[in-house]
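Table S2 (text version). Query chain:
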Amino acid sequence: MLFFSLLIAWGLLQATWEMNYWPTDMENYILPASRDLPHLKYISQIHQAVDRVNVRWLHNKEMMVLCGAIAQALTQDTSTLRPFLIIEIASFVLSAILIYWIFAIYFGRGVGLTCYLFFISCVWPYLYILSVKHQPLGLVFFLLSLFYLQRGHQTRLKLIPFFFAGLFLGCSFFASPVSGLYLPYWLLAFAYVFIPRSKNLIELPFAQRKGTHGWWLVSAILLIVFGFVLVWVYVTFPDPFTNLRAYLDYLKISAGNNHFYYNQPVLRQWIDTPEISATRGGWVWVFRYVILVLPVLFPLYVFCIVFLVGRMIFRRKSTSRTWINAVLMMIAVSFSAPVLAEIRGVAQYGANYFPFLIGVLMVLGYTLFFLIQECSFQKLSVWIKGASIFLLSIVGLIHVFCNGYTFLNDVYPSRMATTFLSRELMKKEIRHVYTYGHHPLKKYLIACLNPGFLQTAQIDSIDNILQAKDGYIVVPPVSGDSLYLAMTSDYADFDLDIYLNALIRSKKLSKYAVASFPTLASSGLWMQEEEILSYRALILDQFARRNPAKEKVWLLDTAMLRQDFNAVVQSAQEDQKFLSDGIRNIGTKERLYLYAGRKEWIETAIQNIAMRIYKVGDPQDSLIAYVYTLDKDGKSWIPVGKNYMSQPVPSRAITANEKGVVIKFSFTPLINTRPGLYNLVIYRSGPGDDQNFYRIYIDDEEQRQSDLRMNFAL
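Corresponding structure-token output:
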């Protein structure tokens, strides 16, 4: 097991050694904080540079920063992700070994090994290793706390293990904000240690003891509390209570000002509620997510629960009330992580529910132990034992196959896009490339290529692919549904290059490509790490049909494009006319050339908004205008008031003539406004449709001329 764990660690290090970051919390906050930590007097001073913007990003991540600073010092590397990758991989592998030891003590070595194998082959932890998040570090500290808590009964060690149990529990809480969800699991283990053997609720094999004396219990609790408080004081000194209040502020901010709050105008087209900021997928989202990320383990977990409950019901006469209560308590505790997350109202994305994995393994481990004990496994015939082991092995192999396939075909290649692209550029000895100067993903892909390549490469900006005269063009993903831009995106595809759009539409882009790689925009699992994308995927089901060409990063050969120059120009003629007339779409599924609304300074009350509109096909719904204003911080658009929606304009009132007709959107009663900047958007009341939709003439001449310059400058 140790050899296999080290082999996994070595493989992960080899596979991720050249992994580049993209601008996330790691680059923006944790990496700089770890770099600055050796120059600070107190660890709590890391918050001063961040909390000025009142977001509390680093609270309860102090141990992540500290471990990062130690790894940076040991590796003499303060500029790359490698020190943090070493921490993540070490945390993951040590967690797997601890799961074996802990579950072996509770349920026996065979069960411990089974839980170890299910954990180490589960794709869920690998997401946070590759994204270099704090969840693996929080998990390993929690498991270390359990490990020492288990050894608190060993009198030859006196009470020392309880101190370390409290110490590592504190480290877990200050390594990851989600570690609080481990507390019910920890309390269950704590209760097991201190309940006398004769009254043990689950009757698991454990070292014999003569009972628990009151002084021993009090001393152990005091040592646990002392270890926890020691960590708390260390990371918050010299003002522990101020930092505690700041952490509570962080919880309040994360629950209230979520991504739905920040992006209300765009989300209004899909979410039919005035309180968009309170949008949640609820338990439907929870179950759909865990089935997605645990395609074998979660059904197995449900099967185990059904088996245990069925055992209670059908053999209740021969089953003790104590055992029934104990198992029911264990099942309830196993599901406590998502329950507590839902009670708290945390943002619904994968990382916030990661502690549930321990609950799943706990029920699996106990069920296997119970089957062995209940059925007197050793006394069964060779055939029955062989069939049982074979069945479990088949389930395990299916688990390994499903998770391995997801990792190798989705999670890993999409995360390594910039690394793979960098290798391709250096292999072909390309030192001069073109890319869009105005592409929203430029800083997430082009700027995150291998530093060795960037130091020697010449990167020139273009507005469209036909402007490049020679060499190669790097085209980032054009999909707007991307983890890179999830928080305040308009989720519209990059549509400022009509020639690229035409090639994608005609499915001829690959003809001019020398390489292409999937990115985070290509992944069905990475999008679950952002609440809006995950909601749209699992609740609104908006990604059933996807276009891989829009989600990849492409390396195009300019020479091949120049050979077909006239053909490419010809293919974009329809789009040229479309842009020349200053027309945008409303209500299409294909998110190209969408009307993004208009922002204007208004000093009088708003009674009507007039726009020139026509319809395509025969839409049967209506158009509605919405008015937004800036919040008190001046950073996010929020509804101007209760009356922020216009009266619907039915389709029958809109002409099909391409010249359009002026439509007035009326507000009754009128909107009383203060002089200021307002955001006016228009959406259809029904679902998107590429055959039946609306078009609007934009009245922003400056924007229209800008689009023309980009697309027609050859």
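Notes on Table S2: The CA atoms of residues 145 and 169 lie 5 Å apart. Residues 197-211 have pLDDT under 50 and may be disordered.
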